[in-house]
Amino acid sequence: MNQPLPAEEIRRRAEQLGPWFHNIDLGGVWTAPGHFLGDYPNVKFQGFAHVLPADLTGKSVLDIGCNGGFYAMEMKRRGAARVLGIDFDEDYLAQARFAAEVKGYDIEFAQLSVYDVAALGERFDLVVFMGVLYHLRHPLLALDLIHEHVAGDLLLFQSMQRGSAEIDAVPEDADFFDQAMFDRPGYPRMHFIEKSYAGDPTNWWAPNAACSAAMLRSAGFEILEHPESEVFLCRRTEIETPPWSGPVYPARGKETVR
What we know:
Layout: H1 7-17, E1 25-26, E2 29-30, H2 42-45, E3 60-64, H3 70-77, E4 82-87, H4 90-103, E5 108-111, E6 124-130, H5 139-150, E7 151-158, E8 190-192, E9 205-207, H6 209-218, E10 221-228, E11 231-236
Parallel strand pairs: 3-4, 3-6, 4-5, 6-7
Antiparallel strand pairs: 1-2, 7-11, 8-9, 10-11
């Protein structure tokens, strides 16, 4: 059994691996003590932790965009048999590996992006997809790939959102000249960030709540819980794959505009 690291060594290595976005308590040493959101992401997690199974014994979990490992470690703390955290950023993975080592959690980590999930070749009982969508150039493609390749049952989703928190009922279809619905606050809307936002040039999109919900449904996820404005707990459902393939995938149907 490995001897626990002394606090000074933990502090030295945490500072060496910084800066951290996940403010994690490593035996009294906080990885980001000056975080602008305080005890983050734990302070956010407490608002929706209750919708997740308290006991994940025997379950497998994939944490996409695991960052410093907070959610991966929480799932392991709840008893998950296997937890895999993936991230495209090797610096975040180094932080997550160190945090898991200090906490004594047996968690796997790999350098992969959400666009690479097909390479895993397996489905997971729970997929955690928190704080990633708005950093992606192709967000709906990411949700499609998660549905098609790795989601086995539950998806925990969060995205930064801006605009209205209202979620309007959307008609199955509408006349070409019916444009009023697009101006309603509760209509699904995605704000595109051309340059930078909050000092982060990787912030590409900011959906409103209706857009997050609509994208999840479109990708084949049934929304089970919406415990706070940015968080959705979903169940994977089967979706009908169109009998043709075209330049846009998944295709919506046979008819095309000529």
